[in-house]
Amino acid sequence: MKKRIAYVLCIAAAGICLSGCSKTIEQKNDSLHVYVDYNDTLMETAVNKFKNAYPDIPVIVTEREETADMEELYEYNEQLSAQLMSGEGPDVFFLQNTWDIDKLLAAEAFADLTEIYESSEVFHDGDFRDEIMEAGIIGGKRVFLPMDCEIPLLVTTEEALWETGFDVEKCADFNSFMEESGQFMLGENYDRRLFLADTTARGCIYWAGYPVIEDGKIVWDTEETRKYYEWYREVYKRENGAGIYVLGDLSSAAAVRDKECLFSNPMMMEYIDVIRALKTAGAPAVLPIYNRDGGITAKMSRTAAARANSENLGNVKKFLEILFDGDTMREFGSHNWKEISVRRSVNENDFNYLESATYREDVTGFPSSLPKLEKEEYNAYYDYADQINKVVYNRGWMGDLREEMAAFLRGEVSYEEAAENAKKKLEFYLSE
Q1: Residue bearing the bigger pLDDT, 188 or 7
Q2: With 70 as the cut, is the pLDDT of residue 9 above it?
Q3: Are 57 and 314 spatial neighbours (Cβ–Cβ below 8 Å)?
């Protein structure tokens, strides 16, 4: 706890310094400093290509070593964040999931990449998904260049839908999904959980597209979000204590197969694995968690950015052009094919890999040689990306909101009391 407090004080001071310094940085372009996360094939590929293309430019690479210690990983990422807040660290990098994006944005830690983006032909070859790319503009500045994202899909079987009477055709937006799933949980055919674990419902405040903080103001406590938390409480009450999803196996697919739950919402973007597995148990069916507007909310995964006071933005441009080049992104091993790429051609290219991909033998009882996806099945999966109309990032305040509203889910306080406590927490967060 002392380390955490010291870190907060450190970045607060650094943020005051950096955000108060809006002077133009003299560009030297005499080197390039790149941060590469552990086992990041894409960034490593781009670094090697950059060195070959510009052998006269010295490249400094900071690469995180492998660690299974989550606390050690968290502290490492926080130190990197603190460096950026104080105007130090790498010139170019991918955002890390544990970073407090709002604090970094407030400190103006990220460079405005508008000129780099507008002047480069790489970003204007017609292959990019514009809705995802435009999510990099925050406060009128293009501070981020999105690489790929995840979208919320529920996977089940046609047989399970028929047995439970769940009508996916009625789920045109998030409100209608809550209504249909609510009727299922309270109906006579409720013979299995809605989800494998209630964490799926927890993530729906993202997927539903509810605004929480906008322009520095707390706006989340509306009648709409009250209905969401009442629905979530019903899910929590009926499904709390469900088995924990084990990363890397097919337990969620097995739970659907064995009638333990109706929907699998795979973690780590393993939708395709689950779809292939469920082909051995019936006819797979996929339902997006549509947001309140009837579109799909994407959550950013890899996102590139540059340090605001970098003296090497000319070299950063050259590097980003290599990083986002179609050949680089399509190179085998560079893309996580379980996610939606900002380049359409990347996902189209993935099918060639999936044709021969197998799954290791698993304790859940599925064979290691899972059925292949037909091309139309594969295309249908990625066609959902065309319905993206909102993109969100991990936010530092989500933990505070979840912590306070959890008391309502557990039945310890009223909704009004939990909402008031949550607002106080968020107000404190905004005041830091």
Answers
A1: 188
A2: no
A3: no
**E-strand stretches of 115-186:** 137-138, 141-142, 145-146, 148-150, 153-157
Q: Which residue has the higher pLDDT, 79 or 357?
A: 79
For residues 193 and 261, the answer to whether their CB atoms sit within 8 Å is yes
Q: What length is written for the chain?
A: 432
Percentage helix, strand, coil, to 5, in the chain? 45, 15, 40
> CA-CA distances (angstroms) from residue 396 to 97, 399, 429?
10, 7, 9
Supply the DSSP symbol for 373: P
Contact 228, 177 (CB under 8 A): no
Torsion of CA 74, 79, 82, 88, to 10 degrees: -140
Cβ-contact 262, 156 below 8 angstroms: yes
Q: pLDDT: is 39 or 363 the higher one?
A: 39
What phi and psi values does residue 171 have, to the nearest 5 degrees?
A: -95, 70
Tokens of 81: 């964040």
Residue-wise over 24-48: b if at least 16 C-beta within 10 A, else e? eeeeeeeebbbbbbeebebbbbbbe
| The token pair that represents 116 in the structure block | 């780099």
CA dihedral 39, 321, 143, 128 (to 10 degrees): -90
DSSP 297-346: EEEE-SEEEEBTT-S-HHHHHHHHHHHT-HHHHHSTTTS-TTSEESBHHH
Phi, psi angle pair for 217, to nearest 5°: -120, 145
Q: Which of 292, 178, 181, 168 is nearest to 227 (CA)?
A: 178
214 beta partners? 217
Q: Count Cβ atoms within 10 A of the Cβ of residue 224 and give its class: 0-12 exposed, 13-18 middle, 19 or more buried.
A: middle
Number of Cβ within a 10 Å radius of residue 51: 14
pTM given for the model: 0.85
CA pseudo-torsion sign 251, 257, 262, 263:
positive
Task: Tell me which amino acid residue 117 is.
Answer: Y
The span from the CA of 298 to the CA of 157, in Å, is 24
Confidence of residue 39 (pLDDT cuts 50, 70, 90): confident
